Amino acid sequence: MSSRPLFLGIDLGTTNSTAAVFDGEEVTLVRNALGTALTPSVVRIDAAGRTTVGHKARRLLETDPANTRSEFKRLMGTSQALEFPAAKLTRRPEELAAEVLRSLRADVQQQLGVAPERAVISVPALFELPQSAATSEAARLAGFERVELIQEPVASAIAAGWRAGEDVGAWLVYDLGGGTFDASLLETREGLLRVVGHDGDNFLGGRDFDWSLVDRLLAELEAQQGVRISRADPAHAAALRQLKLAVEEAKIELSRAPEVPLLLPGLFRTGSGAVDLDTVLTREAVREACTPLVDRSVAVCLRLLKAHGLEPSQVSRLVLVGGPTQAPFVRERLAELLGVPFQEQLDPMTLVGQGAALYAGTAGLDARPAPKEAETGRALWLQYPAMTADPTPYVLGRLAEATGGAAPATVQLAREDGGWTSPPLPLSAEGAFAAPVELRVRQRSTFLVTGTGARGEPVALRPSRFSIVHGLTLSDPPLSRTLGVALADDRVRVYFERGTPLPSRRTFRHHTVQAVAKGAAGALVRIPIIQGEYELAHLCREVGVLEVRGDKLGATLSAGSPVELTLELDRGGRLSARALLPATGQVFEEVARLLVPDADPEALAELARGLRTRLARARQAAFRSAAAPTLALLASADEQLLDAERDAAAASGGDADAGQKARRTLLELEAALDALEAERMWPELEAEARADVAWCIDWVSSFGTPEEQQLLRDTVTAFERARTARQVAELQRQRRAVVRLGNAAFFRHPKAWEWMFEDAASRADDATDLPRAQALVSAGREALARKDAGRLRDVVGELRSLLPVDAQSQQLAHRSGLR
Length: 819
Ligand code: ADP
Ligand code: MG
Fold this sequence. Notes:
6-stranded mixed sheet, 35 strands, binds magnesium ion
């Protein structure tokens, strides 16, 4: 089996279905037995109970309509059963959908030699729970072990090249299918893509084009031969079906040819004998007959834009999806009426499937069956994103249960192309490590995992390699703000970046700033947990505190004692914190609060209380600076808050709708307050960020590898984009990425640690533990003379942890007792 991942995406369409696979680098369409990428969503069951799917079944729609079913997607989620009289069988819509999925699954196996077990399946933006559940059920029936669903317009946008953090404007996805039209307005907000609005017409599609052409031909027949055929006459139903199929084929051919002959001898029988149809269908005729239908779809688009306060000129891109959008006259008409640019070369028929496959990559949903006992060695449990927009994502590792050999003392990660290697990563007492890895931009990076034992001997680990793709990420951010811990020098140790998928858990080692005597009431190490996008702790909001209190200590904690802090967010966004003091083995725990607001009345009330405080503070600031527009905005915020509080109260009385409404209002209010605060702090923020970036550019241009320099250029471009757009979160994210690169380059300078040491040594007289600091300075000098870089590094770390923290910044930093 190939070592490349296999991500499968399926567009389970009303008219046609497609499957595509993504291997981390390229998307390939899956071909069916007829060699085409389109499988009509048509199922036929014959008298013997044999099932036929796809093109063959579609042809039988004409000759055996009673036992052939199409468009069952429209019935998904209903209990309506479909009859197959010849076989005396009935089938539920999801059972028929399962037949289509089974057939696509067999095509994948045929083409790639792997029976896929997992896939992403697209569903219309308006599918609700029962319809989505029926889709999942269909996948289960088709033999999939796990599926994830993605909204069709989101899949289209991904395939059309949407990338995290780029293209800030709105996108319009125009999806005209066989029988339905869907218009979706998408927007990228701070690197995440979402459907912000939707409109459509459930009875507008290619099928209507066909019927309007049929009507036109019937009118022609009447004018030229005096024969009147009515669509209302059951005697002509079969002939009309045949005509419609012929017209549809001709219409499709017209995308390539200017005109197509249509010859159906003896199609109709009337009292006066057989009537031949012998005509030529031209592009012009189709344009005339169908333009009113296209105009109807445009009206829907304009209505959607208007509902969101947008003009077509404010839409940055149009994504065309669905068979009819291949017709040149449709494209011309859309260009004429909407004037929004679109990409010519995308395939509107397979775009959704391609996007679903790319998304499967994002979700890490590898379709291949799990290998059985392939590797040997000590089992390691690794956690990393399969695909991410972060060029330096974290990889977390932990030793599994003690089987498969001795435990390593350190683990090292190395990118296979040799472009990057981690330092040896020591395992914590719990056998865990965490380290950022550097990805190749917009490519797949494979990392090798090696272990080294206490005596320097190699230790085999499994898995011995893993891959991460740098590219887009897609998710609704469960964590809307970056979460971290305030440090006494007013900096922030980030635990979870915003957008981190939940559940999530992370551990870092800190040191105490002051000593805390055993048994001392009132003495404590305060560990403030804060949320926000700022580098300075005092600008972020405290959302919880963990206290290590003297009266609970088993032994006195000297200054500089290590504290291992673990923050954990469960699936529902509930935060808990746990501090371990390795010196005594004592654990301090606190279950903090809910950070992802749900519609639970208690959580709503708490959210409202917090907002009220922030609103008051914002008002004070606005009065001080006499900012009239801000004051007006705050007055309306006040009203909104009152509404939300009323709704929250109704929610505790059992009105769930009111709860949802309150939650939405509060979230909007929170976002508005964030924006207001960001505006106030922007000058300070921007100046600091630019200084950081300038420092890093210097170092990376002198000491970075070519890959790092490329990565820096990309990151600085993203940084500048965020700066121009004044996006606080994105600016900070990119700034952190730049600083990581800058630090790596700085420490490549042969004198870097010497400089760090001299700086720390020059302040040693102020150390909290003077004798220890002096001993460390001598140890450092010796290490320097011996050129023992490793020892020097340890000395600097320890020495710095003894340096006093400025009391004022500690006060500002939510009185943090950690560094
Ligand atoms: P669905 O999303 O409903 O599964 P599709 O996107 O597969 O639908 O579109 C099917 C429709 O597209 C049919 O009505 C078919 O006639 C029409 N169609 C396919 N190719 C073309 C073409 N080249 N020109 C015009 N219409 C086309
Ligand atoms: Mg479709």
